[in-house]
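User: I'm designing a mutation panel for ABC transporter permease and want to avoid disrupting the core. Could you give me a predicted structure to guide residue selection? Please restate the sequence first so the numbering is unambiguous.

Assistant: Good idea. Sequence first, for numbering, then the predicted structure tokens:
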Amino acid sequence: MTLLAVERIKLFSTRSPWWCMLLALGLTVGITAIIAGNWNEGPMPVLGAVFAHTFGLYVVMVMAALAVTTEYRFGTIKATFQAVPDRISPMVAKAAVVTALAALVGLAAGFGSWGLSWLLAGDTSQLALESANDWRHVAGVGLVYGAGALLALGVGALVRQTAGAVSIILVFALVLESVVGLIPNIGDDIQKWMPFTVASKFIMGDPDQGGMPADAGPPTVGALSPWGSFGYFVAIAVAMFVISLVVVKRRDA
């Protein structure tokens, strides 16, 4: 519990997490407000309320990367490792704090976007959370944000430099996953297994079609079910974090 308290204090004693949280919520909820205010394709579905969740996800992942890279930048990680020589415990405590915070931001973004859609959309007859799929679309944003933060924390611990870690995260998510689909013959098959593409399947996949236009909703992505997609994304995040623990344990701070 002491390590958790220490990591919480270190995280909230800097400005970047506060700005990242505000930006993540502002982008997600703000873009959703624009979508809801201009929705004119019949009843707005629950999917429409969480369509902008990826914007906040990328900001939260930047926050998670900063949580470890700034410690390397200012040398505070050395004091932490001197106090806890095994190195694994403080990294696990940091992951617990950052992941929990990211999940809370995701829940706030998901339900905030959904609530704002209720206020701004003209027809809200399809916005009620009446099924397990509806709840997954909204509450699942918190789960994806938490797993994404763990993945970014692992990248940050491996790279140790803020610019490098942030560049890798954003270029991979925003560019590489789209470009890989252009590879002849095998691009589409590879793209279906890209982590952020699969994570979107968890949030957006298998919507309830009642009352929705026939062509509404995202296309089917990959062979995994929504929960299988989330398990796949979590497995990648955990693997990245475990690799970072091995590297942190072996190299000099």
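For picking mutation sites, this is relevant: The CA atoms of residues 41 and 67 lie 42 Å apart. The chain has one domain: 2-207+217-250.
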